[in-house]
Amino acid sequence: MNHDAYSDGYIRGILNTVKTIAMVGASERDNRPSYFAFKYLLERGYRMIPVNPGHAGETMLGQKIYARLSDIPEPIDMVDIFRASKHALAIVQEALLLKPHPQVIWMQLGVRNDEAAALAEANGMKVVMNRCPKIEYGRLSSEIAWIGVNTRTLSAKRPPIGGLQRMSLNRSSAPGGATAAADRVQRQESDQ
Amino acid sequence: MNERIPGFATLAVHAGAQPDPTTGARATPIYQTTSYVFESVDHAASLFGLQTFGNIYTRIGNPTTAVLEERVAALEGGTAGLATASGHAAQVLIFHCLLQPGDEFVASKKLYGGSINQFNHAFKNFNWNVVWADPDDISSFEKAISPKTKAIFTESIANPGGVITDMAAVAQIARRAGVPYIVDNTLATPYLCKPIDHGADIVVHSLTKFLGGHGNSMGGMIVDGGTFNWSRERRYPMLCEPRPEYHGVVMHETFGNFGFAMACRMLALRDIGPAIAPFNAFLILTGIETLPLRMQKHCENTQAVAEWIAAHPKVAWVSYPGLPGDRYHNLAKKYCPLGAGAVFTFGLKAGYDAGVNLVTNVQLFSHLANIGDTRSLIIHPASTTHRQLTDAQKVQAGAGPDVVRLSIGIEDKDDLIADLDQALAAA
Ligand SMILES: Cc1ncc(COP(=O)(O)O)c(C=O)c1O
Questions:
Q1: Does the pTM exceed 0.90?
Q2: CA B263, B269, B273: angle at the middle one, nearest 5?
């Protein structure tokens, strides 16, 4: 897997398959990026489980917060890592101890750990790094175009609606306008 | 995984514009509405909190305008766009997000005269301080940098035409100084030049010109290149600090490589207010669909007219980088290989009165203060736009008594040449 450039089909496939997502590093503060992503994905129908040892036992947007992945009493499909890159390896190791283990490891925008990715992939997991599932959902459903973002997709098909001001991921699209300069900078920064 | 990247003309027609989700309408509908209903109090809270995407109020965003924003962002190779009521409004929003009172920015002194005015006078009231540099001496940009510098600003092809900026060289200076490089790409359009590919971090447009292209709508655009690391530089509080006007959100951390466009929307457009009208967005969008075709014709006509004028006995000089021997010809070949644009100036041997006679005698050329129309346009700056300046200032601004500026349209080039021929004969 080339972790510098994921195809839209790969990302769409993951977001269309997973149902239960554990977010490690979820914050209850309503101005934090993890809160934004958590709330958005919850509203899109995912079962969202917050993991944050500092707040274990509390609830976030009605969902019980767990201290660690192994405390979660149900199977999870995807782990979304909202922690600094250096913590990602330990989180993957923890995820591998779960039975059954999750199918997807997703590291947030700004989070990349190639060793953690290699370990996950060696165990049959799919990996996404340095992306935000909220942004990717918005991009591939084209909701994010409402705020002027280049979705990098094109389509001449009428997109399905998911509700009032809601679009759906159940669609296809062709690649659109590339963001070569931004992608290059992102690669350079993740090499440092 | 190799995904096919669509070409420019495909993006000009399709980017941002899928069939309307509710009606299937294929042309982008004009959403002539100020506001949008919320599904519930919760939905409203998510929208206002930026936790979900959607429309609230047309000052902040509109579905017709959003298509235009994505379209221009895609054509420029940027991560996101933000449309505004005019090109000048776009510049105010950009600098509002970058500068604190007392800060400086370095700008090329060869700019559209309106931008020179905006920077020299209007911005001074905000205590945003411009320091001028000379695009013909790139080292002057480096010398103009101080600890207070927050940005560098140039045009790609400068209005009134002729001057091409060595953008890659300016971009290096910006990189060393740790400041974003802003390029006004109005005269070139992304069809002729993509500044982000040459190191620009932010692109700004007056959509009023070639992008709209038909002289019927005002508009501006900010494109976020997604290339500047606001969090590393830590000198841009609108991007890297919790924002009190937005319940403590940190724009770059939250929105990543389109954080600048989001700051322009939520912190600048929302609070300062120069939103584009949806109808104008629609007209400009329709114009962009033919941008590649029009720019080809604009450039082809301009090359022919410039060559013809250069050989005319009443003409002292022509400044068009498409002409071999022009001092910017090599820069034009590097930055605008498909054509050097459609705006240029020339000098009349007989000076001021000959200029006045020429604009009076033309029949097809319209005498007005705009550029980038399907129609050919003419202006004699010394008697119009630059009238209030002293003679010395006029010469310095490239608007001496002998100077005439043309913006060549997409008519038949032989008719344009015939019109200039009869008008010059009588001048
Ligand atoms: C190069 C350039 N930049 C900016 C502007 C300002 O744009 P607007 O008139 O849309 O405010 C103009 C307008 O003439 C221009 O030519």
A1: yes
A2: 165
**Sheet of B80-84: strands edge to edge?**
B80-84, B220-224, B202-206, B181-184, B149-155, B104-108, B129-133
Burial A135-153 (b: 16+ CB within 10 A, else e): bbbbbbbbbbbbbbbbbbb
Judge if the beta carbon of residue B218 lies within 6 A of ligand 1.
yes
Encode pLDDT of B167-209 as tens digits: 999 999 999 999 999 999 999 999 999 999 999 999 999 999 9
Ligand 1 atom index nearest CA of B207: 10
Residue of A nearest to B245 (CA): A31
Quick one: pLDDT at residue B254? 93
**Structure tokens that stand for B283 in this block:** 């007209």
Tokens coding A62: 């009605």
For CATH 3.40.640.10, the residue range(s) in chain B are 8-287
pLDDT per position as a tens digit, B32-80: 999 999 999 999 999 998 889 999 999 999 999 999 999 999 999 999 9
DSSP B289-345: HTHHHHHHHHHHHHHHHHHHHHT-TTEEEEE-TTSTT-TTHHHHHHH-TT---SEEE
∠ at Cα B36 (B34, B39), nearest 5°?
Answer: 165
CATH hierarchy code of domain B8-287:
3.40.640.10
Q: Is B87's C-beta closer than 6 angstroms to any atom of ligand 1? A: yes
Ligand 1 in reach of B373 Cβ (< 6 A): no
Q: Which amino acid is residue B49, in one-letter code?
A: G
Residue ranges of domains in chain A, CATH in brackets: 1-192 (3.40.50.720)
Strands B377-379 and B403-407 come out as antiparallel
Widest pairwise Cα distance in chain B: 73
From the alpha carbon of B220, which atom of ligand 1 is closest? 10
- Contact between B130 and B105 under an 8 Å Cβ cutoff? The reply is yes
Reported confidence tier of residue B160, pLDDT bands at 50, 70, 90: confident
**Residue numbers in B near A164 (CB within 8 A):** 37, 39, 43
The Cα–Cα gap between B369 and B419 comes to 19
Q: Which amino acid is at B37?
A: V
Chain B hits for A82, Cβ within 8 Å: none
pLDDT range class, residue B395, cuts 50, 70, 90: confident
- Contact between B167 and B200 (Cβ < 8 Å): yes
Fold of B292-426: Aspartate Aminotransferase, domain 1 (3.90.1150)
Q: Which helix (H) or strand (E) holds B108?
A: strand B104-108
Of A66, A124, A76, A117, nearest in space to A100 by CA: A76
Q: Min CA distance, B146 vs chain A (Å)?
A: 25
- The finding on whether B220 has its CB within 6 A of some atom of ligand 1 is yes
Whether A154 sits inside 8 A of B227 (CB atoms) is: no
Cβ within 8 Å, pair A35-B55: no
Contact predicate A54/A27, CB 8 Å: no
